[in-house]
Design goal:
Two copies of one chain form a homodimer. Chain A has two domains: about 130 residues, Aspartate Aminotransferase, domain 1, CATH 3.90.1150; about 260 residues, Type I PLP-dependent aspartate aminotransferase-like (Major domain) (Aspartate Aminotransferase, domain 2). Chain A is about 40% helix and about 10% strand. Chain A has 15 helices and twelve strands. In chain A, strand 3, helix 6 and strand 4 form a beta-alpha-beta unit. Chains A and B meet through helix 1, helix 3, helix 5, helix 11 and helix 12 of A and helix 1, helix 3, helix 5, helix 11 and helix 12 of B.
Chain lengths: ~450, ~450
């Protein structure tokens, strides 16, 4: 590591030099040789980035329109680092209408929100407030492959995967509370387990936890004084039928608080307020990862007070907030946009489902922008390993020039799983990628297994 | 502190709840009762925020114009988290022309820059890379009052002020290298001193370090393997005559490297590359604290590698970078803008100098947007304390309803100093503030000293 001048850096600075996921360098390499139908038909196709390229045109056009309502010069000056009043109100309004979407609970309050430069920044700040260096966070697995780095890079917080797959016979029936209990606090005595971080709809599986699962998990966690982070960044990207209905943790916790107060359990109600947090943002549902907008919903006064201070390091520019508040308040546009986006996601997923051997799709996604599929049949039959998985990943990378996310990075509980982000590219590019992958599978069959 | 739910938070989360400076709550209180000539003539006037309100109109108009060149939808998607290629090139170009402005050294290279959401984020990330929790950073004092919080809030890094005032008889002749040496590493054995962080032009004094002072400090620090951060965020806000000419640390270090290589000292040349870093941004020179743009210049490969990772938590939105690159490349506009800004700063400072008793202005500022003046004559004559300073600050706050920065927050080496940010308000408001302060001084004279 002497190339990187580690001698003169801090231990944590050296630690942060670690790449955020195993395929990072391969991933970056694709940028300089990216596929283009006309100019570079043999280039790499990157399906490892959870980015929605399908509907970004609509959103960005509306954003550019909003810029015509010129921001005042006050947006060039300091404002509340947790987000401007207008933007927090607009985000609260959107979340009330489309994320929570539950008339039986109070509207999301702007003062419960903190807006920062992306959901990654939001999660980092929240975990910072709760965890000391070396503390641990449970994450139901398979999980979003960047979570471990988000918690480790600057915070030194450890992630402990807990398998949320009920059994290999019933893929797709996740089993959150049992999973969390299975790995209980006692199991890792060396770590202080402080939180459980889950994504719902889930990344990489594209499925939705049931209301019962979520409620049981929250009740269990709050009783254990474990903080719960529900990352709901795909809440408006539900495109498929047949899964559970999405219920925001905001709905669940508000109901738990009401029930607790009804039965006179003020302490449990307060713990629900203090221990349950929701993360949202514009990177996924709005196809706008480049806008760098994340949102935290929490009723924990101590966390708000700490964020009064540290939000300074990751605030959103005033002119962005000015324009985005206009977009977020445009219900006619947004309702149409989300409908169109769901339609495009559905169509794009159909392109995958039609072209990929149905046997590998054990979990049918209903949300998000990815499919998590099982390529075990291309691994050695007897005791396949993660090295075998890596060889298969590399075969697809070098032969098909397609980048997928290997299951190992998602803490999959067995080798052979891969995540394909099908919305990252236009349909014709996706078709091309699948053709290449199929051809690469043929060369495995023709020779021997990877 | 039970109101703030500290029980369920981490030690560092609780620590971050501390306010960033002593007058924070008083400062925030002014927002809800802010002075307005027409609607609230008795409201608070906040002169404790280093924000340039004088020329923001010109810059923001140009920015709004730049938005008419619509950004492509790729700006809504992921890009290099250290800054887009176009924006880094544009920032490098501006820094070459107007910050370094030295034909004898190479142009600033875009690849040596990392752009993040504000100079605070840049400094935090840089200190993170170099310092472990509990390590120490020397800061020549008096210093920018938010530096200690910037280093402590999330990093747990300690700041050690070193007085840079040569003697009370020669205010304004700062003496950087001697100051740094006076408090040498041995002096604080409990802390690992890793860096020296200085602002040049200096905040709060508004003065410029001489080339000799800077060079001697850098040579000394690099020889000690202390990292140097030169915060040059006011480099283009030099409005007065009579001080030293500003020389960027980039000029100095490039010359040191060349000289070292000429005499065959490759190790010292490499250490210069690894240990000297420059911070810049758009909050001050561009009057645009709300744009949240900070820049790090460093040639340290290890720091760049760590920032490849952690820049993700504080990236600048794509559409902002698109528009700001256009502004930064518009030399005709920028040359006129900086000239006009210097003119307005000069005029505004003249308003202060004409109205405030000359005897209190012991240090005549030539740069920045503040004057650091000595109100000791309003403190008790015998052994005045920082409590006396606070009483005077509070007298001005309650009687004049004007917020100043007390010297104690700047680690002044004696009580009685105050920073007034004279560009934070329009001229008529500044006049009003000074009238009120003068009247408040009268009530001290009429009764007794504070």
């Amino acid at each position: 590591m002497s190339d990187f001048g580690t001698e003169e850096l801090s231990a944590r600075g050296v630690c942060a030099q670690a790449r955020p996921f195993s395929y990072f360098d391969a991933f970056v390499k694709t940028f300089s040789d990216a596929y283009d139908r006309e100019s570079n038909p043999d280039g790499y196709i990157n399906l490892a980035v959870a980015q929605n390229n399908l509907t970004v045109d609509l959103l960005h056009d509306r954003f550019n329109d909003a810029l015509k309502e010129l921001s005042p010069s006050t947006t060039a000056q300091y404002d509340d680092m947790k987000g401007s009043h207008a933007m927090r109100c607009a985000m609260a309004r959107h979340m009330t209408r489309r994320v929570v979407a539950d008339d039986s609970v109070e509207a999301v309050r702007a003062e419960d929100l903190v807006l920062s430069s992306g959901a990654g920044a939001v999660i980092e700040n929240l975990v910072f407030c709760v965890c000391n260096e070396g503390d641990g966070v449970f994450i139901p697995s398979p999980y979003y492959p960047a979570f471990p780095n988000d918690l480790r890079a600057r915070l030194g917080v450890q992630t402990v995967p807990v398998s949320s797959t009920r059994s290999s016979a019933s893929r797709g029936q996740v089993c959150l509370p049992q999973a969390a209990r299975r790995r209980n606090i006692e199991e890792r005595k060396d770590l202080h387990m402080k939180m459980i971080l889950l994504s719902n709809p889930s990344n990489p599986q594209g499925i939705i936890y049931s209301r019962e699962d979520m409620e049981e998990t929250i009740v269990w966690a709050v009783s254990q004084k474990l903080h719960v982070i529900s990352d709901e960044i795909y809440a408006c990207s539900i495109f498929g039928e047949g899964g559970h209905a999405f219920v925001s943790a905001i709905s669940i916790v508000e109901k738990l608080i009401k029930d607790a107060l009804d039965r006179g359990d003020a302490e449990f109600a307060q713990n629900c307020r203090d221990y349950v947090h929701v993360v949202y943002g514009m990177s996924k549902d709005f196809c706008a990862s480049g806008y760098r907008v994340g949102a935290l919903w929490t009723q924990n006064a101590g966390i708000h007070r700490a964020l009064d201070n540290v939000s300074y390091f990751c605030a959103i520019p005033g002119p962005m907030q000015h324009a985005l508040a206009i977009v977020l308040n445009d219900d006619e546009f947004l309702d149409g946009f989300f409908e169109e986006n769901r339609k495009r996601l559905r169509k794009q997923y159909a392109t995958v489902a039609e072209r990929i051997d149905a046997s590998v799709i054990e979990i049918v996604p209903t949300s998000g922008m990815f499919v998590y599929f099982n390529l075990r049949k291309y691994l050695p039959e007897i005791q396949p390993t993660y090295e075998d998985e890596h060889r298969l990943w590399n075969h697809i990378y070098t032969e098909a020039k397609v980048v997928l996310t290997p299951g190992k990075d998602c803490a999959s509980d067995e080798p052979g799983w891969f995540r394909m982000c099908f919305a990252a590219v236009p349909e014709h590019t996706l078709r091309q990628a699948i053709e290449r992958i199929r051809a690469a599978f043929e060369t495995i069959r023709d020779s021997s297994r990877c």
